[in-house]
Specification:
heterotrimer; A: mainly alpha; C: mainly alpha; MetI-like fold; 14 helices; globular
Chain lengths: ~325, ~625, ~325
């Protein structure tokens, strides 16, 4: 009896019906599979770079400059100093990935902590934190990067700090919004009513509802930060030559584009794009697998408190069963 | 203004199709699917009905019945994956299925108008009413000059009962009230004088008082022009008030159709019977299971002093002598001393003479001069800071074993009062005393120790359950917190089974997450979780308002049964007078944060009732049937 | 609250931010390891002479006094003297700043035009293959390194197709406005890339949301043609947030511009700044940071005012 009301509508949402859904689901699975393979290959080859790379990435050989891709012994060719491009890309993965992962991990921890503090603090502290975040939010990162590069010498630490400055506001905003949304749910009040203390509410009720969101968001950030780091290194305030780094390689390649040697810059750039896309897809896939939206984003009817709006049935012309697909908003974009 | 006037006499002098009236809308064999390629996935199946000029046809059903999808299909406004898989829709003899959007636009507005559910959202927030009405007029009557357009718009606004049409024309939608916006919407939909008007739950989002005005207006607008109205609703009161004929939908199929009086008074299909029996009616509790039957000590009324007897015995687990010897109390054995706070004697000792007096008078809950003020705006918001008093000097008392109802329209502050007495919101001033203990002002450990004795059930069950925890964990966690459950898994399972059985749910639901439950089940879990701590007082904040009528009826019966079996005391918040009358022994009426009337439920129809109460009564659509004593 | 009062508030809120940025910019000059004066002049002057030079730069005063001396330099004396080039900072940055402004403007135009177009296409054709295809392109685009994208544009349009100039701001033998435009196309596209895609996603979601609203359906149900619905109701309702996003994206755009200047050899402030970093020319770095930050704040203020004026709730409040 109790099922009568909600069964048909929920069924289409909870149980994948034959026909439409499975196609998208397999599509997603394929996407996540491809992403995982790419990330695994790149991570493993970076870790085992000394074993995998055919040549020393720093060994220049003036005799074999600008070898085209497919040359014997140099699968992707060589650069202006005769260094093997494949080896440099493999070694470059180390620097590029490490910088991005460390920077994102650091920013995620700091940003989430700030957001959670703001979410549970009084209006004054909360306001102070979030207004500061607002100011940081849209501030041109490049200015910060330049300042950092001026303070310390250009190098990986400048890139990591610049990324942190760029990303912390995004993480904080996303997590803060999520914490606020969760705090507005009745289950928090229910926990109070059931005798839970502050710590219990924070760690045992709300946190489990935001962690997946944080993990998903951090994952999708890594790709973007590989891209951003490569740009910083390319303009000379990141990783310095001769260290192999994708951004650094793009900049080196850019200088020889005019002379017609395009692939020197093209390959590392493509690598950046592929890795970034892979992390994006992984993030999307995780979002679906962990079902973040569906479980936590249940629409609440309580907004108006007393309103007897029983919003029954789908209103005329409302979105179909899978209207949630567009949830990923542009607020999740980060500058590159 | 016509709206408050009694329903026009023109109403269906002869219910049913008038002889000779042409069918303006014919729907036959209509099926709609969101996955057109997979057979059997239709959400609307083989639906058919006809609508004649001057007639009101109600399409009734619970959520998921396909009534709104049917309406969308008629309008050609189905969301993109959904398609009409078979059937025909004829408007004045012209076939609409298969027409392109462009083909349909010739019919829209001119022959077919719609009024949507949510008046707050159905006007464009960025344009003035004049602009929006003007756009519609320009579309349908391109030859009109701007002066004539304004004149026509103003005339229609006056026709829908808006006195100061000029002001409303200049206003943006957000500057108008909900009822006002729905009036404007009715004018907008009727501007082109369509032969058929479709209204999708036109008053669901409105207060009962406004609801009746809007419905009467809608009826008048339609019938005076001899147009037809297709009314989509879940509310049988609205059906009874408005419809000439009724079509009942369930799971996308028509289960019953016929003339209103036939369907409502002599329903043939069991589903219709069930639905009708579930509707709470003023003066007549459905299924004969009203409060009278379930009320503890109903014959004598709640005897004063019983609560204090229990309290002074130092027995917080007990709920008054009124049902101490009741044989039907299944869980009486389960109420071990553990049920109370750690040191019952310490807590039940009244610590204030005035509060002691409360318990002596036999009050479990005493609310005195309760006031709550919210601050709005202020630094950083870009708005000037101002204060808003949601609750003003509210005072009432609830005796043990009693069901006390608080009713009021939206914004009357009833939910705020509920949260204040539930200890979920700090009061600005005044006091809430529960069994001799201050709830307001006391914080931390003292309040926490008191919490198991009064529990809260939320309006939105979905939001009140933690989506990341299994239902079982959510019930057991508070029990462990108060030392009422051991850590062992087997013991936990047994306890859980017992708690779930209390609300009529099978034990295996304990392992599920909330999203895998239906709305009714979720609310039962919410009740089970609250009852697990074995409270004496349950604060029920519109626990059924998000549910379908049939689910609501079973839930109310469960609540009444639980109250009877466990000897509970209820504070029930509601906006539906019939529902509150069904459940409660005494009723308090809130208006703009103040308690304006308070009476025993049996005195609801007394002449001494306050104006606000009588307004609520008058607005109730089923009042006629109830028959005042 | 009146509009004037609101703008006043916003201006007031800008001051602490500007002060903070100026302190940070000042600190860059102080906190850096090593003595720039010594690094620059040690081989040519004696210790006393170096002290004199320090005094002319105000480097012998207490820190807080140095800050105000520096502020005065910025305000009155053209931002101090470049250590490397020996001329006032703003004399160096001034002309370049104008060039950067031109490129930023180009980026904004690219962002708005393409962002709106891409977003509208995807939003209007939501749930069709067009939407999916456009969104795939958007996803790929969002993961492009601006620097590399600029390079690819040069390879395709300048080197292979030879439609547009490779870089710089003007042809060697000069040229008029058309010449400038030709030089501006590719860098603007590259600089605006990320912002335009952010805007596109916003516009798309905005359209999808608006089409789902009851007021859209109200007018659709009256037979108003689609293009009119999109043009009037959808357009007007997403306009404020589109303007807001564009404003918020200025920061990203400036970052993009500086990357792009490097690829296209655009003679802008970014190139100057990056050179200054390498040459440890602190006055130039400080002046540049302050200049960009101030511009950014002004743009933000203008955006806020525009968004407010588009909101009927505020307009009449």
């Amino acid at each position: 009896m109790a099922d009568l009301a909600t069964a048909p509508k929920n069924a289409s949402r909870l149980v994948p019906l034959p026909g439409r859904r499975p196609r998208t689901v397999t599509g997603r699975n394929l996407q996540v599979g491809v992403a995982l393979v790419i990330i695994a290959v790149v991570v493993l080859s970076s870790v085992f770079a000394p074993l995998v790379a055919p040549h020393d990435p720093l060994l220049s050989d003036p005799a074999s400059k600008y070898l085209p891709p497919g040359s014997p012994g140099h699968l992707l060719g060589t650069d202006d100093q005769g260094r093997d491009l494949l080896s440099r890309i493999i070694w470059g993965g180390r620097t590029s990935l490490l910088i991005a992962v460390v920077a994102v991990a650091f920013s995620t921890v700091v940003g989430s902590a700030l957001a959670i503090v703001a979410g549970f603090a009084g209006p004054l502290l909360s306001g102070l934190i979030m207004r500061t975040v607002d100011v940081m939010f849209a501030f041109p990162v490049i200015i910060v990067a330049v300042a950092l590069a001026a303070l310390f010498a250009p190098g990986p630490s400048v890139v990591i700090l610049a990324i942190a400055f760029a990303v912390i506001p995004y993480v904080s905003r996303v997590v803060f919004a999520e914490v606020k949304q969760q705090k507005g749910q009745d289950y928090v009040e229910a926990a109070v009513s059931l005798g839970a203390g502050h710590a219990s509410i924070l760690f045992r009720e709300v946190l489990p509802n935001v962690t997946t969101q944080i993990i998903v968001y951090a994952t999708s950030l890594v790709g973007g930060m590989v891209v951003f780091a490569s740009s910083l290194s390319a303009v000379g305030i990141g990783v310095q030559p001769p260290t192999a780094d994708w951004g650094q390689m793009i900049a080196t390649g850019a200088r020889v584009v005019i002379s017609g040697n395009l692939y020197v810059a093209l390959f590392p750039g493509l690598m950046v794009l592929i890795v970034a896309l892979a992390f994006n897809w992984l993030g999307d896939g995780l979002r679906d697998v962990l079902d973040v939206r569906q479980r936590s984003g249940a629409p609440s009817r309580r907004k108006t408190g007393d309103a007897g709006a029983d919003g029954r049935d789908t209103p005329v012309g409302a979105a179909g069963p899978d209207g949630h697909a567009d949830a990923s908003g542009p607020a999740e974009e980060v500058p590159r | 203004m016509t709206a408050s006037a009694p329903r026009p006499a023109a109403v269906a002098p002869q219910p049913g199709r008038r002889p000779g009236a042409a069918a303006v809308l014919e729907v036959a064999g209509l099926s709609v699917s969101f996955e057109p390629k997979s057979p059997g996935s239709e959400v609307v199946r083989d639906v058919g009905f006809t609508l004649s000029a001057g007639e009101v046809l109600a399409l009734v059903g619970e959520s998921g019945s396909g009534k709104s999808v049917t309406a969308s299909a008629i309008l050609g406004l189905l969301p993109r994956p959904a398609q009409i898989t078979s059937g025909s829709i004829r408007l004045g003899g012209d076939e609409l299925t298969g027409l392109s959007q462009r083909g349909l636009s010739a019919y829209r507005g001119r022959r077919l108008g719609v009024i949507f559910q949510n008046p707050l959202a159905s006007l464009d927030p960025s344009f003035t009413v004049r602009n929006q009405l003007g756009e519609i007029i320009r579309h349908h009557r391109p030859g009109l000059g701007s002066g004539a357009r304004n004149e026509l718009a103003a005339e229609w606004l006056r026709r829908v009962g808006i006195g100061d049409a000029d002001r409303v024309l200049r206003a943006y939608p957000h500057e108008l009230s909900g009822g006002m916006r729905q009036r404007v919407m009715i004018a907008l939909a009727s501007l082109a004088e369509p032969a058929v008007l479709i209204a999708d739950e036109p008053t669901t989002a409105l207060d009962t008082v406004v609801q009746r005005q809007v419905l009467d207006l809608l009826h008048e607008v339609v019938t005076t022009r001899d147009a037809a109205l297709l009314l989509i609703t879940h509310d049988f009161d609205v059906v009874e008030h408005m419809a000439d004929r009724v079509v009942v939908l369930r799971d996308g199929r028509v289960v019953e159709a016929g003339v209103r009086s036939e369907v409502l008074q002599r329903p043939r299909h069991p589903y219709t019977k069930l639905l009708l029996s579930s509707v709470p009616r003023l003066g007549a509790a459905p299924a004969g299971a009203g409060r009278g039957a379930a009320q503890p000590g109903a014959d004598a009324g709640p005897p004063p002093g019983t609560g204090s007897a229990a309290a002074s015995e130092g027995n917080p687990g007990g709920t008054g002598s009124a049902d101490a010897g009741r044989p039907g109390r299944v869980t009486s054995g389960a109420r071990t001393p553990l049920a109370g706070p750690a040191d019952p004697a310490d807590l039940t000792e009244p610590n204030d003479p005035a509060e002691a007096a409360d318990s002596e008078r036999g009050e479990l809950l005493t609310v005195r001069d309760l006031t709550k003020t919210f601050a709005l705006g202020g630094l950083g918001t870009g708005m000037p800071r101002r204060e808003f008093t949601a609750v003003k000097d509210v005072a009432f008392a609830v005796r043990p074993g009693e069901a006390y109802g608080l009713i009021g329209r939206s914004g009357s502050g009833k939910s705020t009062v509920a949260r204040l007495i539930g200890g979920l919101l700090p009061a600005t001033s005044g006091s809430v005393v529960f069994d001799g203990h201050q709830i307001t002002g006391s914080g931390g450990a003292a309040l926490t120790r008191l919490r198991p004795r009064f529990q809260y059930v939320f309006q939105d069950a979905t939001s009140s359950l933690n989506p990341r925890l299994t239902v079982g964990e959510q019930i057991l966690r508070p029990l462990r917190r108060f030392g009422l459950a051991g850590r062992g898994r087997a013991a936990g399972r047994e306890l859980l089974e017992e708690k779930l059985a209390l609300v009529g749910l099978p034990a295996e639901l304990g392992g599920r997450y909330p999203h895998a439950l239906s709305g009714g089940q979720r609310q039962r879990i919410g009740i089970a979780r609250a009852l697990a701590l074995e409270p004496e007082l349950l604060i029920l904040d519109e626990p059924t308002s998000a549910l379908d009528v049939s689910t609501q009826a079973t839930l109310v019966e469960l609540l009444l049964d639980l109250k009877h079996r466990l000897g509970l005391t209820y504070v029930f918040i509601g906006h539906n007078l019939a529902l509150v009358e069904w459940i409660c022994d005494r009723i308090g009426v809130l208006e703009q944060g103040a308690l304006v009337d308070e009476f025993a439920t049996d005195d609801l129809y007394d002449d001494t009732r306050a104006e606000e109460t009588r307004a609520l009564l008058a607005a109730n659509l089923s009042t006629r049937k109830a028959g005042t004593p | 609250m009146g509009t004037v009062k609101r703008i006043g508030w916003r201006l007031l809120l800008m001051l602490p931010i500007l002060a903070l940025v100026s302190v940070l910019a000042f600190l860059i000059g102080v906190l850096t390891p090593g003595d720039p004066i010594e690094a620059q002049y040690a081989n040519r002057f004696t210790a006393e002479q170096l002290d004199q030079i320090r005094a002319t730069y105000g480097l012998d005063l207490p820190l807080w006094q140095q800050y105000f001396v520096w502020l005065k330099n910025v305000a009155v004396d053209g931002g101090g003297i470049s250590i490397v080039l020996g001329v006032p900072v703003f004399d160096i940055l001034g002309p370049n700043f104008l060039n950067t402004l031109i490129l930023t403007l180009g980026g904004v135009v690219a962002c708005v035009v393409f962002g709106m177009a891409i977003g509208a296409t995807a939003g209007i054709f939501h749930r069709t293959w067009i939407d999916r295809a456009v969104m795939l392109i958007v996803q790929i685009g969002s993961n492009l390194s601006i620097y590399w994208f600029g390079l690819v544009l040069i390879i395709v349009f300048s080197l292979q197709l030879q439609w547009l100039p490779v870089g710089g701001m003007q042809s060697r033998n000069g040229g008029g406005f058309a010449d400038l435009l030709a030089h501006l196309v590719l860098p603007s596209l590259a600089a605006g890339l990320i912002s335009m895609l952010v805007l596109a996603r916003f516009v798309r979601i905005g359209i999808i949301h608006e089409v789902g609203t009851e007021h859209f359906k109200t007018f659709a149900s009256q037979g108003i043609p689609r293009w009119k619905l999109y043009g009037k109701h959808v357009g007007r309702n997403i306009l404020p947030s589109a303007v807001n996003i564009t404003g918020l994206e200025i920061g990203t755009l400036i970052t993009g511009v500086i990357f792009v200047e490097s690829v296209f050899n655009w003679p802008g402030i970014g190139t100057q700044l990056l050179n200054a970093v390498n040459g440890k020319d602190y006055p130039v770095i400080q002046g540049g940071i302050l200049l960009v930050a101030a511009c950014y704040l002004v743009v933000n203020l203008l955006t806020d005012i525009t968004v407010d004026s588009l909101n009927p709730r505020l307009r009449r409040a």
